Amino acid sequence: MKLRALVLPCLLSAGLWVPAAHAQRQGTLEFGLYARKNWFGESYALANRVGGGARLGFYLLRHLELEANGAYTPTRLRPETTNEDVRVWRFNGALHYDIPLSDHAAFILGGGYTYNKYQLRAAGTNNDMGHETGPSGLVGFRFGLGSTVSIRIDGTFDYFSSPDSLLTFPNVEKDYHYGVQAGLAFLFGNRGESYKGNADADGDGVNDAADQCPGTPKGTQVNSSGCPMVAAVNADSIRMAAQADSMRMKMHADSVAAAARADSLRMAQEAQAKAAQAAKDSAEAAAKANADRIAALEDSLRSARGAALRASLRDSLAAARMRDSLRVLMATPNAKLILAGVNFATNSATLTQSSRFILDEVAQSLVANPDVRIEVGGHTDNTGSRALNERLSQARAESVKQYLVDHGVSADRLEAKGYAWDRPVATNKTIAGRAMNRRTELDRLN
Questions:
Q1: Quick one: CA dihedral 285, 291, 294, 300, positive or negative?
Q2: Whether the Cβ atoms of residue 187 and residue 22 lie closer than 8 Å to each other
Q3: Distance CA 43, CA 164 (A)
Q4: In b/e form, how buried is each residue of 274-286, taking b as 16+ CB within 10 angstroms?
Q5: Would you state the pLDDT for residue 420?
Q6: How confident is the model at residue 96 (pLDDT cuts 50, 70, 90)?
Q7: At 199, is the pLDDT very low, low, confident or very high (cuts 50, 70, 90)?
Q8: Residue 38, by phi and psi: left (phi above 0), alpha (psi -120 to 50) or beta?
């Protein structure tokens, strides 16, 4: 009790009057001695007593320390009238991190692992009472007494998930130990830098971390970089000139790059405009040529003699008109086109041979216009049952779609839909009307 009454107040008061403490850099070694007060878990029949210990640490990085420490605490079993002495050995390994609070103090956070060993002293003999292991935590403060000596005050917490059955009463699955330890720490090796990096080795008033001219003689006037004023003026002038040259070179490079980008953009736009104009001219030329061909075929059909010749001219005229209609479909959003001449065998989805020539033209147009999406619609007259016409119209639409896919059109651009007799274009009361209603139709979807 006397030790606790004297040590803690002295350490706390010393921390208020110390000079600047020094941070620990990579490679710093720490050795320390401390007094420790233990508070054992409630299930332990041990009196809370004061002991002592030692620590040894090594700074892996700036402020990051790997530390090992051991402590010895003589205590007694409760109630203390039994006069049974118990010796408690605590060994701990942990990682600590120093968080600077000012130029002379730091806050410490740490965690690690603890091993406790217990011995019962009876009749002059040490008897093993068991041991336990578990994770631990630490919260503490460091107060500097110069570049070598500092004060450490730490609080510890140990958790044991499986205490030895000889140590606890009643037996428990988990328990906790607490402790406070205070003492001196001695730093060796790579040390001497303040927590906030405020060291000034040459005394010129400029922090070492920012001093570009270390070792300046005392009394020399320096600039904000710690360099003599005359040398600094020359250095500043040279640096400013170099910066100005660098800025001019960068502005010139930026201008050249901007001009190159503008030229590239202009050339790309001109090339795109020429390509668009060429495509337009080609389309107009093709349309005019097809119009001239249609006019010539119509003149020939009017003057033709013989059924075979007239049938051949009608087929050619239908193909020319189909090409014209396909150009309109490819150029016009949401346009429609009835595929005149695309027919099927009676009550089936089998395409006639003449239909295949027309669908070849459709496939070529769709391949040449890859952005166009199409619905293939199958339509019937009202002859037969509803179920039959629904199946037949869907099958015929699927048949046309498959033919187009087989000839190079991507399937994801096509949809097939059977409408039965729901969308007639003529009356179903006449033979001619029903023939017009039996059709395949292309609807552009975009």
A1: negative
A2: yes
A3: 11
A4: eeeeeeeeeeeee
A5: 94
A6: very high
A7: low
A8: beta
pLDDT at 2: 43
User: Cα dist. 48→43, 77, 78, 121 in Å?
Assistant: 13, 10, 10, 17
For residue 411, CA distances in Å to 168, 328, 398, 402 come to: 78, 22, 11, 8
List C-alpha distances in Å: 249 to 240, 242, 347: 14, 11, 81
Q: What is the pLDDT of residues 124-161, one digit of tens each?
A: 777 888 888 999 999 999 988 877 888 999 999 999 88
Paired tokens of 438? 């039996």
In sequence order, which residues have a C-beta less than 8 Å from that of residue 242 and are 6 or more positions away? none
Q: Which residues have CB under 8 Å from 130's CB, separation 6+?
A: 118, 164, 165, 166, 167
Q: Amino acid letter at 69?
A: N
Q: Is the pLDDT of residue 10 over 60?
A: no
Token pair 């030229």: residue: 263
Query: How far apart, in whole angstroms, are the C-alpha atoms of residue 81 and residue 73?
Result: 18
What is the DSSP code (8-state) at residue 349? Answer: -
What is 332-444's CATH number?
3.30.1330.60
Q: Find where tokens 């060291």 sit.
A: 199
**CATH code, residues 2-192:** 2.40.160.20
The ranges assigned to domains in the chain are 2-192, 279-329, 332-444
pLDDT given for residue 346 in this prediction: 85
What is the SS3 assignment for 419? Answer: coil
Six token digits for residue 365:
């147009």
Asked if 156 contacts 178 with a C-beta cutoff of 8 angstroms, the reply is: yes
- For residue 111, give both structure tokens: 């965690």
Q: Is 72 helix (H, G, I), strand (E, B) or coil?
A: strand
Q: How far apart are CA 146 and CA 20, in angstroms?
A: 6
Q: To the nearest whole number, what is the mean pLDDT of the chain?
A: 82
CA distance 378 to 212: 86
- 394 close to 417: Cβ distance less than 8 angstroms: yes
pLDDT of residue 73: 94
